[in-house]
Amino acid sequence: MLNVIVWGNQEQYDLFINQIKAEELKGNICVKGVVSEDCAWSNKIDEYEMIDKKVLLQELGGGKN
User: Fold this and answer.
1) Global pTM value
2) pLDDT over threshold 80, residue 52
3) Cα separation of 24 and 43, whole Å?
4) Own/partner pairs, 40-47, CB within 8 angstroms, 24+ separation
């Protein structure tokens, strides 16, 4: 099983969420969170934790958008 993060939570998320959930049900992936530029309005989307893009990039050593 792969641990994954989903990058983005807007139109593309809506297009692919059913396939993502199907892969989770099959045991192929485990979604650890959803990366977003705008986490101020919520800390979760569906049942997934929201991950702030800026914070993630800083932790990975990138720091730039």
Assistant:
1) 0.75
2) yes
3) 21
4) 45/9, 45/13, 46/17
- H or E segment at 50? strand 48-52
Distance CA 24, CA 53 (A): 23
Token digits for 55?
A: 């914070």
**Lookup result for tokens 């893009």:** 53
Distance of alpha carbon 9 from alpha carbon 53, whole angstroms: 11
- Please write down the long-range contacts of 55-64, taking CB distance under 8 Å and 24 or more positions apart: 56/5
4 touches 34 (CB < 8 A): no
Q: Which amino acid is at 22?
A: A
Distance of CA 18 to the CA centre of its chain: 14
Residues forming beta bridges with residue 45, ordered by sequence position: 48
